[in-house]
Write the structure tokens for this entry.
Amino acid sequence: MPALAPAPPNAHRPTVPHLALEERIELEAALRAGDTQEAIAHRLQRSPGTISRELALHGGRAAYRAAAAHQAALARRGSGRRGDCAIEAHSPLREEVHSRFRRGWSPEEIAAHDFKAGASTDN
């Protein structure tokens, strides 16, 4: 089997899910210099779609600010998948869930239980 040829030096990076702060700073500078999204993508070795999404999420070409975009991205990271944990905000609920775990309930059984209608003495 023949060896694979090395990737060209301007090839896109392997999938890195988030822009680093340094990349965002370079993006902001390039926008101020009037560079196109395609040129910026090439320089950062990112997909043009990545640059387009970054700008769409953080104010567009005219309003993009690297520091603010980075802070917003850090705050947003993971929140869509996990959301807020209800039991952290409600100690009675937390105690009830922990009690059910101690009594041998599975996570699935606890999740399926209607805590608004159920009493804490359910077995």
